[in-house]
Specification:
The protein is mainly alpha-helical. It has three helices and two strands. It has one domain. Helix content is 52%, strand content 4%. Strand 1 and strand 2 form a beta hairpin. The N and C termini lie far apart (35 Å).
Length: 98
């Protein structure tokens, strides 16, 4: 993503991160709950990254495609921990043998 003020280009999430997220995290939760993957993704983004709009009070959520690799990694870790602690659903780490 390119900064409008200074023109600096920030890297966004990597293809391996994206593959892990959709192929493991979203797949496990989608299968567990019977939710459509895209809807589940939107709901997770809102729940974990939503910020109230000062004027309307409604939650505003960044696009996951705009997240830096570190921010995306933090988000996915937050989802993994939440799935385990709140729903007892284990999601393996990338490259983790289960």
């Amino acid at each position: 993503m390119k900064c409008e003020k200074c023109g600096h280009v920030n890297r966004t999430r990597s293809l391996p991160q994206n593959s892990y997220y959709w192929g493991v995290v979203i797949d496990i939760l989608s299968n567990e709950w019977g939710e459509h993957p895209k809807k589940l993704h939107r709901d997770l983004m809102t729940y974990h990254l939503g910020v109230p709009n000062e004027k309307t009070g409604m939650l505003s959520t960044p696009s996951s495609t705009e997240l830096t690799p570190k921010a995306f990694e933090d988000y996915v870790e937050r989802v993994r921990v939440w799935a385990m602690t709140d729903h007892n659903i284990f999601i393996p780490l990338p490259n983790e043998n289960i």
